[in-house]
Write a sequence for this structure.
């Protein structure tokens, strides 16, 4: 847990009794069952769980991409489950950064444009957006690829661009859904280091869903989703053994 | 608000998918082009007609007219007794220019000294200035058979003043006239309007027209507030004072129905185009589902997505519209001849040499293109906004929604069809209402496509399974599962093919009706008449003595004569003068059919001879004649006379309608005993060809007349009929092209969505050939469904065209004539269009690399 002057940092994400079922009226079919969780500002939190356990669903609910069956998600004082679709979209655009497993860069935009996209979408000037993007590209080591299209980049490079895009608008919360799941071990680890470095440096909160136990020691807190419930793995992530996955 | 980066995205998408953008542009361009072309052709023909009328009318405010012409002495009374100096005598007739390729020319007889206030282009206005013209004018007045001709005509045939022009007069004699000068109107439009004009002085014109002592009319320019009763007081009962606008206006109204019918057909092409655009935009949305999903996840609002897709569609729509306008002008130039020919055949003589590009037409074209783009793009644009953000994307979402919408779409279809049927019941003569109901029924039928597809695919599955094995099992399922794509393509094809069925059935029924009507009414074996075809022919006046000469020919059993003239109907000042048909005997031998007949003995000829008249169906329709409203007043040579209408007969000669009066009755009220046609009934066993040859060679007075057998006459009538509908064939073809493109783009969308699935199939051992077969089974099924669904839809269209629109447009009863031919043909067209639409996708699919396809998501 990140601390400021010895006191716990404020809670930025507050999840209460969150449930999600894709089968209306079937409580036993819930993929998430009354999940509650607090995430503090600047924390790095990991969600573990087998495929289909509900990790991505939880991230989708937190980002406002999806709506819960019941419960509430409060981010930085805003109950996003109470927002309408438009408000959730704008909230996501301004306050949340997302890194996907499959990078999800837009093939018809250049590297630079992919990074400027969140700023330009909210109406920032192109010039200003490009200035900021170039700084970030420098930091992810891809400044020289600014004018290339994504299909010219390797998987690792694409994910670094995606990280830059997720951070450009200085979101309060960064969500990463298996960010290394589509990369080889070495590349994955470099990408992860970069992601952690950038979020830690800027004091951003990072919530990551992953299969990769190697990352666990780096987290402030680790949870596993099991049978729709959120189970704290250990207070000290270092004791988590790969066999526990 | 759409941000610049989204605009850049749009632009790049268009750049990268040029072929697809091209399909969209073609869809819009074709729809707009057809509309603009038809509009232009209609407007140009009408304009040419109005111009030719007004160029002759000049500044005339009033005219004195009579059924059999105006005696010359009336002119003297008007000018001298009433002191009306702004009055001019006019003779109008048509003659054949034998030395100018038999061209039909307008003969205008005028008094040059009275002309100046009326018509600028005539030499009277210039004679004091140009000495050459002055001497020409002198010769024109002083010497017989001197004429002015239009500069355009002179240029075309290399004629100059001093040359001789040989004319064939309405009485079939030849007259050589000398050209003394040329008419040179200032502007191009007047030149065009006057290009067929031959100007003679009154005496020469009277001689050529065979109307000694008679004028066609007297033109007047009356000062405002002039008491017209002064003129009416001196007019004998067989003459009328009228205004020139009443005539030309009413005549141009006549072709409104014809023009509207063409326009409706062009709208059908546009409707198919709208489906095509829908397909193309949907395709482009499908292609970008993942991009849109990412944009949504990154916080692009639905409104931004909607605006982005719509802006893209509208950009392409604007390009397509501009292209369509250009294409429309080109197409208009090529079809104006067809339209003008039909107007010539059916209504009046019109000489259209160029297409006038009117801003109104262009604006309408722009509106059509943009509205169609908007309407067609709005659903896919909305669909794009429903794309879930990446991460929560499920491919089956769209199809699931389509399935959920199915009951509503089908119910909507039934509601539209019912609404169409209800609108049809409205007792109105409005064609707009009729076409609205037609469109409602058509769109309703098209909306039944998804349901038909599901049912059809379920039914056909076992059959294709047996025929093609696993491919045959998969193909119908693939069609049914991708309803959102396949249904629209099939609907577009169904619409296009049902238009073919509907119009073909209507034309065939009409043709069969006309053929039967010809068989019952053309009872004579040989016909002698004017050599021209259609309404634009030259006038002929046959000497009654010819009839008696023909009666003496061996082998001729009976001679039937007919006089055809126009008569003023004072009760209907807004309608053009009525056609009066005066037969001497019942040439149909009692076979003529009636909508209703009030003849005491049931013998209509007996009734005619007793003094009643019969009117044709269009005449009755246009003048609201019924059993309770069964009189018509005609301006005879004895003054206005009211006749009882004894029945309404079926007749397809002219949609302006006609009145039939027995010759014996006619002779009591009219003085003109000349004839316009003669029919010969031959004795049994006599060959018409023998008589034709004999009559042509030996009987005097046959020069310039056409003599033809019953069979040749029928063939000629049907030739005009076929020419009238030639333009619809082009329109039908266009609808098919648009539908074909629709199928193509739908298939491409399907492929794109299922690339991964195809990759799996390839990875599991499906050969490229099998993939091609799979595609063709799919397209074949889609084409067959369209072909089958087009049969009832086309039939409904045909019924509305025949039973409602034709009746409301022209007042004709057409008997429905159904043969399997139209339906088989339509099915073949649907299948062929669908299979052809599958060629390129099948080719692409067979080149698909399995690994690449598997990676696609």
């Amino acid at each position: 847990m990140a601390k400021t002057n010895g006191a716990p940092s404020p809670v930025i994400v507050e999840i209460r009794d969150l449930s999600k079922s894709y089968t209306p009226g079937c409580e036993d079919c819930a993929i998430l069952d009354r999940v509650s969780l607090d995430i503090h500002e600047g924390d790095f939190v990991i969600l573990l769980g087998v495929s289909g356990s509900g990790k991505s669903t939880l991230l989708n609910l937190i980002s406002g991409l999806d709506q819960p069956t019941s419960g509430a998600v409060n981010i930085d004082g805003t109950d996003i489950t109470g927002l309408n679709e438009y408000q959730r979209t704008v909230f996501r655009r301004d306050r949340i950064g997302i890194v996907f497993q499959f990078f999800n860069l837009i093939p018809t935009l250049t590297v630079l444009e992919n990074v400027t996209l969140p700023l330009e979408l909210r109406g920032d000037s192109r010039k200003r957006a490009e200035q900021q993007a170039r700084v970030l590209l420098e930091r992810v080591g891809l400044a020289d690829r600014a004018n290339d299209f994504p299909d010219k980049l390797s998987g690792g490079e694409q994910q670094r661009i995606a990280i830059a895009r997720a951070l450009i608008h200085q979101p309060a919360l960064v969500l990463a859904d298996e960010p290394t799941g589509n990369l080889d071990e070495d590349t994955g680890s470099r990408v992860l280091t970069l992601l952690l470095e950038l979020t830690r440096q800027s004091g951003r909160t990072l919530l990551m869903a992953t299969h990769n136990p190697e990352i666990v020691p780096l987290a402030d807190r680790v949870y596993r989703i099991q049978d729709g419930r959120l189970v704290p793995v250990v207070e000290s992530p270092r004791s988590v053994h790969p066999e526990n996955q | 608000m759409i941000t610049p980066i989204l605009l850049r995205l749009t632009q790049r998408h268009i750049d990268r998918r040029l072929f697809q953008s091209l399909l969209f542009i073609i869809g819009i361009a074709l729809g707009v082009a057809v509309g603009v072309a038809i509009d232009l052709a209609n407007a140009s023909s009408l304009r040419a007609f109005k111009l030719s009328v007004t160029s002759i009318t000049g500044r005339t405010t009033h005219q004195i007219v009579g059924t059999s012409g105006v005696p010359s002495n009336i002119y003297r009374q008007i000018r001298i007794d009433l002191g009306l100096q702004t009055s001019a005598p006019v003779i109008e007739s048509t003659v054949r220019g034998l030395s100018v390729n038999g061209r039909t020319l307008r003969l205008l007889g005028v008094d040059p000294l009275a002309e100046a206030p009326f018509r600028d282009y005539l030499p009277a206005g210039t004679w004091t200035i140009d000495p050459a013209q002055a001497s020409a004018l002198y010769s024109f007045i002083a010497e017989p058979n001197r004429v002015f001709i239009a500069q355009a005509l002179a240029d075309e045939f290399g004629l100059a003043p001093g040359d001789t022009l040989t004319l064939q007069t309405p009485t079939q004699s030849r007259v050589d006239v000398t050209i003394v000068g040329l008419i040179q109107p200032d502007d191009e439009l007047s030149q065009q309007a006057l290009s067929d004009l031959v100007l003679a002085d009154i005496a020469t014109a009277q001689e050529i027209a065979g109307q000694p002592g008679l004028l066609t009319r007297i033109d007047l320019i009356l000062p405002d507030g002039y008491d017209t009763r002064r003129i009416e007081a001196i007019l004998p009962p067989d003459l009328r004072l009228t205004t020139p606008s009443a005539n030309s206006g009413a005549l141009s109204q006549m072709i409104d129905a014809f023009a509207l019918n063409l326009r409706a057909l062009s709208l059908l092409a546009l409707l198919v185009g709208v489906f095509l655009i829908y397909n193309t935009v949907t395709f482009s949305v499908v292609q970008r589902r993942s991009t849109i999903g990412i944009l949504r996840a990154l916080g692009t609002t639905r409104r931004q997505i909607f605006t982005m897709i719509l802006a893209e569609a509208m950009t392409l729509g604007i390009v397509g519209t501009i292209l369509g306008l250009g294409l429309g002008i080109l197409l208009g130039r090529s079809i104006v001849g067809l339209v003008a020919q039909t107007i010539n055949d059916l209504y009046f003589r019109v000489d259209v040499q160029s297409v006038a590009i009117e801003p109104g037409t262009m604006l309408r074209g722009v509106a059509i293109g943009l509205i169609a783009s908007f309407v067609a793009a709005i659903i896919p644009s909305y669909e794009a906004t429903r794309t879930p953000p990446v991460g929560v994307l499920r491919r089956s979402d769209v199809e699931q929604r389509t399935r959920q919408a199915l009951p509503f779409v089908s119910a909507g279809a039934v509601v539209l069809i019912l609404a169409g049927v209800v609108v049809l019941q409205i007792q109105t003569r409005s064609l707009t209402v009729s076409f609205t109901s037609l469109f409602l029924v058509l769109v309703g039928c098209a909306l039944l496509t998804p349901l038909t597809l599901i049912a059809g695919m379920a039914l056909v599955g076992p059959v294709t399974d047996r025929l093609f094995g696993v491919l045959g099992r998969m193909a119908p399922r693939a069609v049914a599962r991708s309803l959102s794509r396949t249904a629209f393509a099939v609907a577009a094809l169904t619409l296009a093919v049902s238009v073919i069925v509907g119009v073909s059935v209507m034309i065939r029924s009409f043709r069969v009706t006309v053929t039967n009507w010809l068989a019952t009414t053309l009872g004579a074996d040989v016909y002698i008449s004017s050599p021209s075809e259609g309404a634009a022919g030259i006038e002929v006046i046959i000497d009654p003595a010819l009839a008696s000469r023909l009666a003496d020919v061996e082998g001729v059993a009976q001679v039937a004569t007919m006089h055809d003239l126009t008569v003023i109907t004072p009760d209907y000042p807004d309608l053009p003068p009525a056609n009066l048909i005066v037969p001497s005997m019942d040439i149909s031998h009692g076979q003529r059919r009636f909508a209703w007949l009030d003849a005491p003995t049931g013998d209509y000829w007996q009734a005619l001879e007793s003094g009643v008249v019969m009117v044709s169906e269009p005449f009755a329709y246009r003048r609201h004649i019924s059993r309770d409203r069964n009189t018509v007043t005609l301006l005879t040579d004895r003054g206005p006379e009211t006749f009882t209408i004894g029945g309404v007969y079926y007749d397809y000669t002219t949609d302006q309608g006609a009145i039939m009066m027995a010759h014996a009755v006619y002779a009591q009220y009219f003085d003109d005993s000349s004839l316009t046609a003669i029919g010969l009934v031959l004795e049994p066993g006599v060959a018409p060809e023998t008589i034709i040859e004999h009559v042509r060679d030996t009987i005097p007075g046959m020069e310039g007349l056409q003599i033809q057998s019953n069979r040749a006459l029928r063939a000629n009538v049907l030739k005009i009929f076929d020419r009238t509908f030639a333009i619809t064939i082009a329109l039908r073809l266009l609808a098919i092209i648009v539908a074909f493109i629709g199928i193509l783009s739908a298939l491409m969308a399907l492929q794109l969505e299922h690339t991964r699935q195809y990759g799996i199939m390839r990875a599991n051992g499906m050969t490229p050939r099998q993939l091609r077969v799979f595609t063709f089974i799919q397209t074949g099924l889609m084409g067959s469904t369209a072909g089958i669904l087009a049969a009832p839809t086309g039939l409904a269209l045909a019924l509305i065209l025949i039973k409602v629109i034709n009746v409301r447009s022209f007042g004709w009863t057409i008997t429905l004539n159904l043969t399997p031919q139209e339906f088989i043909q339509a099915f073949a067209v649907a299948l062929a269009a669908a299979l052809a639409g599958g060629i390129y996708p099948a080719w692409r699919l067979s080149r698909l690399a399995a690994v690449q396809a598997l990676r696609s998501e």
Remarks:
- The radius of gyration of chain A is 18 Å.
- Residues 42-64+94-236 of chain A form a domain with the Rossmann fold fold (CATH 3.40.50.300).
- Chain A is about 30% helix and 25% strand.
